[in-house]
C-alpha cells in the first residue's frame, strides 16, 4: 500500500511539472521601445495583440511591456499620424519599433471655389467625401450621404416624413434672424440653400467638398458665410461607353408603438379622474352624454363593451417600402463626352396615403470645338410629388369603433373631425414640384498662359399644391371660415 502511495506522489509531481511547463510556454511576455522616424521616443502608442483584448500603451519614455498568448501572436503598434505596424512575435522577447509618419492623402486633389488644388497646398478648412464612400452609403438623398461623414457639420432630421429635408449646419449657427443654411454649388453653379440638395441624384455625384471657413469660401462672398457644399458630378472618361444600373430597396419599421392609448381601461380611469379633479361629472359611468354612450369601467374591464380599436392597424402601413433606381450612360472620344442618367425614387410613409415620388433626369455634354474653345453643358430636370397624410390615429379613443351599424364612419357628432380613416379617405393634400437647372460653361484658351472661363446659369422652380378638406370630416374648414 505504501509503495502505491509513493508511486502516486511521483506521478502527481511529474504531471504538475508538465502542466507548469505547458502554461509557461503558452504565455509570453515581450517588451521594447517605440520611436518615430527621427529617433524620438513616442509616448501613448497603442500596443495590443491582434484579435484579443490584451493591450497597453507606451509610457512617457516610449517603453512598453505586453503579455501575448503565443509565439504566433501578432502585435499591432498604432498612433495618430503614424503608419500602423504589425509584427509577429516569434522567438523575440524584446521588440523595438520605429513608426513612420503617415503622409497619405497629401497629393489628393480637392475642388475649391476658384479651381482645384492639392490637399498639401490647401490652407483653408475643406473636408472631402469621395466616390468610394458615397457608393457605400445606401441613402435616398445627399443630406443622408453627408450625415456623420464631415467633422463640424450637423445634419439634423427634424422629420421622418417621405421626402422631408434635413437641416444642415456647418460649425453651428451664425445668425439669430437670418439664414444659417450653407451655400450649395453644383459643378460651379451656385444653387442656393441646402434645400436644393433634393434636386441632385446621389448616384450622379463624383465628390463632395465642404468648405468650412472664410478663406476657403471667400470667392462666394456673403453667400458662403455659413459654409459651402461643393458638388462635382460624374463625367465620362475617354474610351468605351459605360452603362451603370443602381437599385436599392429599404424597409422602415416602428421603433415603438405610436398609439397613445394601448389600454382602454387605463384611459377611461384617467379620464374620470381628470373630470373629478376639474369638478365635472365623469364620462365613463355607463351613461349617454350628448347622444354618445360612454361605457362604465366595469363594462370595459369585463369585456362587455365590444370595441377596442387599434387605430394603428387602421391607418398605419406595415413595413413601408422605398425604391430608388438609377440608370446612367456615359461615353467619350477625343473631342466629345456625354453623360445621361435617370433616377426614380418612390418612398412610402408610415401612414396610408402618405407618399413621395421623385424623378431626376441629368444630361451633360462637353465638346472641344477647336484649339481655343470648349463648351460644357449640364442640365437637370427634377419632378416630385408629395401626397401628405397629417395622421390622427395616435390619439383617437380606442373605445370608439371604425364604422357604425350602417357602414358609415362612426362619429361622436357632426362636429367630430378626428376620425382618422375618414380624414385619410376624404382629405386631399398633394404638392407637385418642378425644378430645372441648366448651366453652360465656355472655356476660351487664348494662350498657354491665359485661359478665360465664363458660365451662364439658369434655374427655374415651381410648386403647385392641391388641397381639399371636406367640411364634414375636417376642422380646417371651420378655422378657415371663422
Automatic annotation (TrEMBL):
GO terms for molecular function: siderophore uptake transmembrane transporter activity. Keywords: Cell outer membrane, Membrane, Receptor, Signal, Transmembrane, Transmembrane beta strand, Transport. Residues 1-24 form the signal peptide. SUPFAM superfamilies: Carboxypeptidase regulatory domain-like, Porins. Residues 119-228 form the TonB-dependent receptor plug domain. InterPro entries: CarboxyPept-like_regulatory, Plug_dom, Plug_dom_sf, TonB-dep_OMP_SusC/RagA, TonB-dep_OMP_SusC/RagA_CS, TonB-dep_rcpt-like. Belongs to the TonB-dependent receptor family. This is Outer membrane cobalamin receptor protein. It comes from Saccharicrinis fermentans DSM 9555 = JCM 21142.
